[in-house]
Amino acid sequence: MLPEAEPALPARRWRQRASSFLFDSLQGRFVLAMLGGLALVQLAVNLVWYSQVEQRVRRQTELAAHHVASGAMGAVRALRELPAAYRPLLIEQLRTMGGTRFLVFFNNAEVNVAPLPGQPMARMLEQQVTHELNAQLPKGTPLRVVLASPVGLAVSPGGALLSDLPESWVEPSLIAAERPAPFLVIQAETEPGQWLYLSSTLPDPYFLEQLEFFTWQRLTPQLLALGLAVLLTLIAVRAITRPLAGLSQAAARVGRRVAPKPLRVSGTQEVRQAIEAFNDMQERIRRYIGDRERLFASISHDLRTPITRLRLRSELLDDTAVQDEFHEDLDELDMMVKTALQIVKDTDIHENRAPLRIDLVLQKMVRDASMGGHQVALHSEPLTVFGKPLALKRAIGNLLDNAMFYGEGEQPVEVSLGRDDDGAVLVTVRDHGPGVPDAALARLGQPYTRLDHGAAMRKEGLGLGLSIVREIVADHGGTVRFRNHPEGGFEVRLSLPAA
């Protein structure tokens, strides 16, 4: 089954990309709107045109039916007035001299002629000619009127075909294989056992072709116009959305705490206003981050110095109980300063982004854990991400430390590396500990969040490990998901965009 399923994956991804482009992107929606609008306009124009052509062809058909019926009636009268012995001589003379537009035969029975299939206008012509002839022929005269193709058209009950007749009898162009003109065949029983066979083309032999709606000659210019409109729309929309693409990329870089250069102001008035507002916002964020760094640097300097000075002075106290109270308060104050500084330090690591073989990082971490006496099982494949190496190592290290401390037992911690359905790099860390209460899953990853069993096992913790992981992963455009594994234990899934 795998050889059949694997080739379908690229096709599915291509369909997803095409669907995303057409329905989610601004360019695709513009193209669909332009294509749909032009298609509706062309359809309406074609329908109006077809209605007018149909009315004109209908009038021409009525006139042609009257003209052919009048000519056929004159031929019928002339032949019926001649004695039967003279009729073949007159027919032969007409064929030789070309004195009539009809091809005339006398047969001893009706010839079976197949009508043109699926032609409502042809049926209207047959009914019109039949009606006019019945009005002038003796009542009850058997009459058959059929518009048929000249290819394979029989002219006698014996099977003789129109194409078998001499060229002097029939104009060759009327039965050309590449474009045969239809023949109107009129058969009337003049005397018992004698059928008069008249066949002729109409004054406009190709009147039915005017009703062919979908022809390449008519559709090609319209398709070319649609293609040109789509191409021009893509060019225009791309020029409009190019500044927006630069704006979104710059916003993504700001979200990853990268300080991009101010964007060049270009595009339409609305886009220029958005870029100018973004540049102003980016400058304010840059100043805010700089102020925050200076603030925490000053806090570190200003608070640690008096804390150290107070600790030294407390050593001079004679009362041990009072000295212990001072030390307890100073330790709490020192812990608060360390906590605040650690949050800033661990979630705002200033380093350049570079390609990182995440599988090699995991292998080194597993070796270090094994040297420390921990059991860790690793399942990985060679994968690369683009990000801050030190920050990613710290995030994965926090997950591995938590799994080894809170969940390691008789079974080893399981670490796996692969890809998810969207192609992103997926790092999964699972322990075999007691897990987490379902009600507490939503609070995981928030600063200072500590569960009861974790606080009981490690009193010196701050509850910042998972929040640091979440901040670092979000800085790289990824996601972190927590869950209790169905087979027991706790599992963290860390998803990062592939390089």
Number of helices: 11
Largest sheet: 5 strands, mixed
Find the count of extended strands (DSSP E, 2+ residues).
11
Average the pLDDT over all residues and give the rounded result.
78
Terminal CA distance reads 30 Å
**Sheet with the most strands: spatial strand order:** 6-8-9-11-10
The gross shape turns out to be rod-shaped
- What integer value in Å does the Rg equal? 46 Å
Uncertain stretches of 5 or more adjacent residues: 1-6
Order of helices and strands: HHHEHEEEHHHEHEEHEEHHEE
Tell me the fraction of residues in β-strands, as a range: 5-15%
Helix share, percent: 40-55%
Backbone structural class:
alpha+beta
Describe this structure in words.
This protein has 499 residues and is α+β, with helices and mostly antiparallel strands. It has 11 helices and 11 strands. It has a 5-stranded mixed beta sheet. Strands 1-4-3-2 form a 4-stranded antiparallel beta sheet. Helix 1 (2-23) crosses helix 2 (26-81). Residues 238-290 form the HAMP domain. It is found in: Cell inner membrane. Pfam families: HAMP, HATPase_c, HisKA. It catalyses: ATP + protein L-histidine = ADP + protein N-phospho-L-histidine. The chain crosses the membrane at residues 30-50, 223-241.
